[in-house]
Amino acid sequence: MKKLIPILTAVACLALRVGATVLPAEKLLPDDTLFVFSIPDTVKAKDIYKNSPQGQLWNDPSVQAFKDKFVSKFKSEYVTPLERDLGIHFDDYTGLLQGQFTFAVTQNGWDGKSKDGAEPALLLLIDTKDKSDQLKTNLTDLKKKWVDSGKSIKTEKIRDIEFSVAVLSSNDLPKSLRKSSSSADSTATSSDSKEGGDAKKSDSKKQVYIGQAESMLILGDSPKVIEKVLACMSGASVKTLSESASFAANASLFREAPLFGWINAKALISSFTGSADTTESGSATGNPMDFKPEKVVAALGLNGLNTVAFNYLYANDGAQFNISLGVPESSRSGIFKILAGEPKETVPPPFIPMDAVKFQRWRIDGQKTWAGIQKIVNDISPQALNTLNFLLSTADSGAKDKDPNFDIKKNLFGNLGNDIITYQKLPKGETLADLNNPPSLFLLGSPNAEQLATALKITTGIFMGQSGNGPKEREFLGHKVYSVSTPATPGQKDAKPGTISFAASGGYVAITSDTSILEEYLRSSEKEGKSLRDAPGLSDASQKVVGSGTSLFGYSNDSESMRVGLEALKKDLGAATASSTLAPLVAASGMGDPEKIKEWIDPSLLPTFDKISKYFYFTVYGASANSDGLNFKVFAPVPPQLKK
Predict the structure, then answer these.
(1) How many angstroms separate the most distant Cα atoms in the chain?
(2) Above 80 in pLDDT, residue 576?
(3) Residue 12 burial (10 A CB sphere; 0-12, 13-18, 19+)
């Protein structure tokens, strides 16, 4: 028994030691944390991705050739050159991700206003668990390679833990990364060449601390912040993020989440406003038209935003992404008061057709929204509101020449309801014009839709009448349809003038650039057809995003959208990548030439959609408000063919 006691004591101490390294992010980070992104268990997260529809699709044999070409190009362009520049192999480090992964930004004495040189601190924490010996070896090798390459490396102890300290500057950026930011470098070079002294100042230097505490890899640029983390790991009394009331308000969102993030919005917004240089006239420059940041922030209601929190959840029935804006009802104003909407029915009405691939319904009071917008504009610039009112008064006077009883405030804004619906169908063809302009309908709810449509006709006639493009009128099934010609999009090849049509029916004013979808809507009152609300699985999925206080609901048929997108991609890479779906990706990559895009994304290597259709289904989303803030939820149910 006496021999057993020391063994048990050693085991208990070891357990306490190990336990300290696996504290959750909120118990490791200081209470002045501004931003945190954390994956509590990277092994679990990788397993979730592997079993998700996206992970299964990426590992499907039918996309292997496409995947191999993309990965090979990515490695040759970025990974291999970066490994060569840094003198490391990423495979030696990716295997170390065994536990927590946390990236954080802490305030560290910075408030955005004082000129004492304080800056936010960056921190990266990676728990390697049973790979701690490999981590130690990797760090030793990394330090040797850096020293051999001529980098200035020193050693510093923080709470008896040895850290390597590298002094880095913008000139230490690896050549492979400089290639990606050549335009930024050229701008910096031209400005630095103006004066040698300024060039030295612009080449800011930063100390980076990297070390190992038990199984935890710690990388940061502030020894003070690292010291607090080590103190937490050792069990010392330190105020942590978990004790922050604003973080604790979102604690339920992070519990059991394989991925989450949090932002101290109040501290960030405060740091970017209220500069000491701001003059009484309203700006740092003294120009009364150069608005004070505080004025804009207050008008938009941003000073009422305390936190932003998000998480990702995955279960057998699907994946869910949640965002929470901490804007208490008692301090809610500006855009947040508008975004809160009204808790009313949001499911698709019976007239929304089954073949709609996108749908959204937002219960927002039009009259209150207009009043809110006017208040925001006035709070930012009374002159801007005066200009707006002058334009409306001019339109009102012009309208009275045709109808003495017309009142723009009463007939137009006074007829705005509390229901806004949009839905979209698949493109009619595969040309660039078809992909960018699928048939869609905008429905504006109104207590008197006929009067609202007439008001729109009159006001558009006033603003466009001088150019001869005033509304044209025709009858369709007893409804008056008004059409307004619109100019061609400037700079777009082969662009042609378009037409916006609108008509009143069923308590809505329907507006569209596609006549056929408008006429289909006007016929919907005469015949019954299959409705989107009866789509298989939609009712059950909507329960994940709709609840008390919901004012917005949306739906996207990912399967049909992907089918059309894939067919367009395989048929015409140039047109497909210029479409609204892929254009941002292509623009960001800097690859405007389809032949260059093919070096990365080769459509000929993609399978036909029927071979991968089982990985796609639909997505729903909803927004709601309660006394604590605004919430946005997205849910993607597991496709039926993948359900176990």
Answers:
(1) 106
(2) no
(3) exposed
